[in-house]
Write a sequence for this structure.
């Protein structure tokens, strides 16, 4: 029997229960590719003797899960479960767990960093100087902006708290929240009123391309768009068109529908791109890996496989 860890990086020092697995003669196997797995790679690594999986963002489709004949527990290092076929997992009796609290601060801080970068032209200024051009670039103050937060869960709330310290006006759009801390408006109204829009939603069929041509055309001229959630939330072709036309002044993106991203958005000076690294803060990764490990072991003990 084995436990497989498929995140692109994982520090086994954070697996406090490793000795317990060793004593039970359960092998712990790491992702040998150090990158996100494809379906076929996941199938190959899972084999038929994996009882527990500490997962990253690889596609755990019905095809993958059906191939893993011994798999009983999946513990996601992170929040989202959109990479897991939950219907297939339930049908197969596979328990699926995640670490929803751990990434909150890291994702919120990266969001804030991207917003400040857009408003103050930080990446462009850096590139200019490296190319021998010493010229200050005029930006604008976050304090004077209305920031629209789409999705007001753990991360959305934390982003709002950080933005409040800068004096920004905050509006939100979330049909599920009961919070009355900020004005909660419909999506169309938020797009029309915001100088900066930031997305903090889970990805599913109902949120696919929630930001599309209609919403982008409603945004203020000169406004900015930030997505540190999931690539599938945004129609990238529509975003590309809005940037080309000058409808929006810039965008910051940490995630894409297909990753690694190799598309045209990379060619825009006013687009900031990071490699899906919202949770990649050292302290956060430690916490996430510890929590996922503990969840996995607890679940294996509960079903008497450990």
């Amino acid at each position: 029997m084995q436990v497989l860890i498929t995140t692109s990086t994982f520090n086994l020092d954070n697996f406090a229960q490793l000795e317990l697995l060793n004593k039970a003669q359960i092998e712990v196997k790491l992702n040998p590719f150090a990158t996100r797995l494809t379906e076929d790679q996941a199938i190959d690594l899972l084999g038929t003797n994996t009882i527990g999986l500490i997962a990253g963002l690889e596609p755990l489709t019905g095809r993958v899960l059906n191939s893993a004949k011994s798999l009983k527990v999946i513990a996601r290092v992170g929040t989202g479960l959109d990479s897991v076929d939950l219907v297939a997992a339930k049908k197969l009796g596979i328990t699926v767990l995640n670490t929803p609290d751990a990434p909150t601060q890291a994702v919120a801080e990266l969001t804030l960093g991207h917003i400040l970068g857009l408003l103050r032209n930080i990446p462009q200024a850096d590139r200019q100087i490296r190319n021998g051009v010493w010229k200050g670039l005029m930006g604008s103050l976050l304090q004077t902006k209305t920031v629209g937060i789409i999705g007001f869960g753990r991360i959305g709330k934390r982003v709002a708290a950080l933005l409040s310290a800068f004096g920004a006006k905050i509006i939100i759009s979330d049909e599920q929240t009961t919070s009355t801390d900020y004005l909660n408006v419909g999506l169309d109204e938020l797009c029309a009123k915001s100088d900066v829009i930031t997305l903090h939603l889970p990805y599913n069929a109902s949120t696919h391309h929630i930001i599309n041509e209609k919403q982008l055309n409603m945004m203020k001229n000169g406004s900015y768009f930030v997505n540190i959630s999931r690539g599938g939330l945004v129609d990238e072709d529509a975003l590309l068109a809005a940037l080309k036309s000058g409808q929006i002044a810039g965008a910051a993106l940490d995630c894409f529908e297909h990753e690694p991203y190799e598309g045209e958005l990379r060619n825009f000076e006013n687009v900031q791109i990071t490699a899906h690294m919202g949770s990649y803060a050292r302290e956060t990764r430690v916490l996430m890996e510890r929590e996922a490990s503990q969840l996995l072991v607890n679940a294996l003990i509960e079903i008497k496989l450990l």
User: Anything to note?
Assistant: The chain is about 35% helix and 15% strand.
